[in-house]
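Per reviewer request, we include the raw input and output of the structure prediction for the construct analysed in the revised manuscript.
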Amino acid sequence: MAYGISAKNDSGEVIIDSAFEHYHFAGKAGLFSTTRVPALSGGTDTQHSPSSPTGLNGSQVNGHIFKYSLVARANSNSPAPMCFIKPSSTGSSAPYAAIVLVERYGVNWHIWILQTYGYTAPQVYCFLPLKEMTASAAASSDVYGLKTYNSAGDVTFNSSIRPLKVIGGGTATSPSLAHTGTSSGYSVNLSVNVSPLNFSTGVSGTAVSDMMYYCPSISHSCQEHQANSSGDGFQAQGSNSFFYSWGRGDLWWCFYRGAFRLSSSSNLQSSYVTYASGHVWKAVENTSGILVALAAAILAFATFGATLPFFAIAIGSTALTSAFTNTGVASGYYYPYKNDSRNNSNNPFMISKASYYD
């Protein structure tokens, strides 16, 4: 543009530029719902195969999903709000939390935060360009201050509306996997136990209880454990007696999302929170002959955990419909891949202070 204003600090960094739509405090998002992805469990048994274990390990607890709403005036071309998490607690025993979804809902925004199960919901401080905020939030009666406009006549900066102020930040990565060690047999525990990674916030002289962070979840991990068993025997039924053989395959899995916590004012930690988990199994039986039947049974479940069609058959549409009733999350199998992680590097984060906006 031919005219405008650009203000820089003593390091040469641009602080205000009238052509740039600066983010300002749009308000705290309001918590309206708390839910979890239901634990998925289901399978098939036969007359002679064992019917246990048919449950999930008690330690495989899915995290809380806290749903918030931000009143705005969004449209299909609107940028998403920047949402800072003000945790309910900090330190080495605090929960991990991260934004896993931001979606436009009419003219407003919905924000989902996944957090370690069993802790109080965090506060969410939201920032938007002035024209994306509600008219009341963007209005000011102050007589003095600085207000800038772009070439389209939109207000891009208003010193009276509390612009976003960043006091620290950096780049975080997530651990390569969420669970370390191995599982054996039918005693399975895939809960998060990885050591967190530590990153400097670049902040000093600020109480950690006043700090909040912006770092949406982009990393994820999926891990599984499989177990196979088989057997044979003889069923005495008089003239209808028969030999039988059976085979059974079990699959346990967890799907995790990357999350963070402030362990101190100078340290941000990254780890994972369990987003979804499940246990499915399939048993087959044959009475045509011990050796032939046993070979057929083993072949039937040998690749049980390797393909989603088997997975879908094991759970079944009825179990899914019941499990997801009134949960407020999309139904599905939540088993995207095996024993690997994705997008677990180069996640920028920013730090600000809640007291600037309270």
